[in-house]
Write a structure and sequence with these properties.
By secondary structure, this protein is mostly beta strands. The protein is built from one helix and 26 strands. The protein is globular and about 60 Å long.
């Protein structure tokens, strides 16, 4: 018998400006939730043509980008480039250093690109690893239906009701499930014991928790669960006017100090200073940053 996790906190992700002309709802990496190891930041972004995230560096962590609507182009100083289409993801390991650009693909009708970006810390021993990418197309992601088809899941990373995801997407163990619940549907989803877990609500109203601890949560909220327990419960009222959709994300906590300065996430202040020096002097992983400008980022100048 599963032991349901209680809700530790739930709060609205307030919209703010980020990058050049983009709007984001940031929930992890704020005063409400500074970090939730191994998670460093979670942004729900909306980016219209002419806006985006031009050339910028990273070191010491991984980013997971999930496009919900539209398409996103990416390009880096190593010559890697491509496009993440709607429903697809990119797992990027910055490791010892990467400089790249992320820009929305222009749509004929001006529809904005909408997506999620999650920053995941790397274990100390992997912070100086070589950068790498793993792309996951929407059609590659396993699906599963439960509760007589009232609950639909995309198993992006992890396991759900006997279905396993594609393997080896990120170095730090992370589960990501995209869950839609129709009116009257309910689900109990198991989670690894001891992992930190949260849900980010995209639409509708979801009732999380069990018994007296249940809470009804609207869209654009981060719902953090306690570590105690091995499952979460969620449902939508039978008389609800619409389905609900949320991302359920869990990760293995890392027993290490986090020292962050913008796009550099290391374990000591000295390592952060070194990262800034390496970036400015184009050394120790940032050699190819010297004189580099992305083609897709040139539209911003």
């Amino acid at each position: 018998m599963s032991a349901p996790r209680a809700i530790q906190q739930a709060f609205l992700a307030v919209e703010q400006s980020e990058g050049v002309g983009a709007r984001v709802r940031r929930s992890i990496g704020t005063a409400s939730l500074r970090t939730l190891s191994p998670f460093l930041m979670l942004d729900h972004f909306t980016s219209t043509p002419g806006a985006g995230f031009p050339d910028h560096p990273h070191r010491g962590f991984e980013t997971i980008s999930y496009v919900l609507q539209g398409a996103f182009d990416h390009e880096d100083f190593a010559g890697n480039s491509g496009t993440i289409e709607a429903g697809g993801l990119q797992f990027m390991t910055a490791g010892k250093g990467i400089m790249h650009s992320e820009m929305p693909r222009h749509s004929a009708d001006g529809t904005p690109t909408v997506g999620m970006q999650l920053w995941v810390d790397l274990p100390e021993k992997l912070k100086k690893c070589e950068p790498r990418y793993r792309d996951l197309r929407d059609e590659e992601i396993p699906r599963v239906e439960v509760d007589d088809g009232k609950v639909l899941l995309k198993v992006i990373s992890g396991q759900s009701h006997g279905v396993d995801s594609v393997k080896d997407l990120a170095y730090t163990p992370v589960w990501i499930l995209d869950i839609e619940i129709k009116p009257g549907g309910k689900i109990t989803q198991s989670l690894p014991v001891g992992w930190n877990a949260f849900a980010y609500t995209l639409s509708g109203t979801t009732v999380f928790g069990a018994g007296k601890g249940q809470q009804s949560i609207g869209a654009y909220h981060n719902v953090v669960f306690t570590q105690k327990g091995d499952s979460i419960s969620a449902e939508v009222a039978p008389d609800a006017k619409e389905s609900s959709r949320f991302l359920l994300i869990a990760g293995l906590p890392l027993d290490q100090k986090v020292v962050q300065y913008g796009p550099f996430v290391l374990n000591t202040q000295e390592e952060v200073y070194q990262a800034m020096l390496d970036y400015q002097s184009h050394s120790n992983g940032f050699e190819r940053a010297k004189g580099w400008r992305s083609e897709i980022g040139k539209s911003m100048t």
